[in-house]
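Why do we care about 3D structure at all? Because function follows from shape, and shape follows, mostly, from sequence. That is the central idea of this module. The next example makes it concrete: a single protein chain, its amino acid sequence, and then its structure expressed as tokens.
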Amino acid sequence: MAKVSTIRDVAELANVSKATVSRYLNGTLSLPPETKKRVDDAVIALNYRQNSLARRLSLGSSETIGLAMPDVANPFFAELADAVEEAASEGGFGLSLCITRNRLEREALYLSWLDTRHLDGLIFATNRPDDGSLRQLIGERGNIVLIDEDVPGVDVPKVFVDNSEGGYLATKHLIDAGHTRIAHVTGPEPLLTVRERYEGYRRALDEAGIPLDPSLVLFGAYDRSFGEAAAAELASREFPPTAVFASSDYLAVGMLETLRDRGLDVPGDMSIVGFDDMEFASLLMPPITTLRQSARELGRAGVAILLAMLAGDSDAPSLSPDATPGKPVHRLPVRLIERASVAPPRKR
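And the structure:
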């Protein structure tokens, strides 16, 4: 195997010090023409290839940011990752994709990369309730932006969508279609998105003068299997709801399949509104009415804020901040996408 040339080899051949070669190659030292030629000739003769990572670390920057998120199979997170990579590249940074699988030990690992300067900053997304461990880990570090879901008590910039308005619009759409017995199927109760979408659901009911029925609110997991279980439970009741606001499209898909398996028609027997507007929502039978939140806008906003922080720019991009000055929460709008999963209730 051929010997790999080192900076020491270049220095010896050019008859200069290692420090001179290092500073010259890093662009921090100008050399007289004759010395410059000797170093250049030595680099060519030895086929010396500089370790770019070591160079960047020596300058105090990895020129890389990280995106920590639960998984990449979920279409929402896949689109988020694509947007973050695109925006990071436009800003002159590489991206390290960090898949946490919603496990604390993996989240802690990627946060520690900030300490070792493997990453200059981190965009962080989680969708599991925190027992305080994650709050402590994030609180000990800087150059972090939270997106999509909150970690309560953490004083860093955050980018969320307007979850409460989304819950309100979804429920109001069902009320406007004539429904009064509306269930809400959602994720783990401690999560920000769950609490805020539930608040919007309640607000729409209150505005319409419809009493809240706690038995119609089902908290569980943000996944298809819980949607299936929730649909089976609701459909088996003596007085089932005529409509459901499911706070994710994955929940809506699980509900749709279970209702269809039981011979129930959507929207004839039960109307459904989801949340996210994932690509598959428009391909289902029937296509699902849902609230569109843009994963691309979330990702690009997170990168813009993080790069402003890394540049020492105190005027981070303004996206309707509604929290503590200096560490704002930025809210992005949502939009109701009407499709074929909502119809007036049948008379019984």
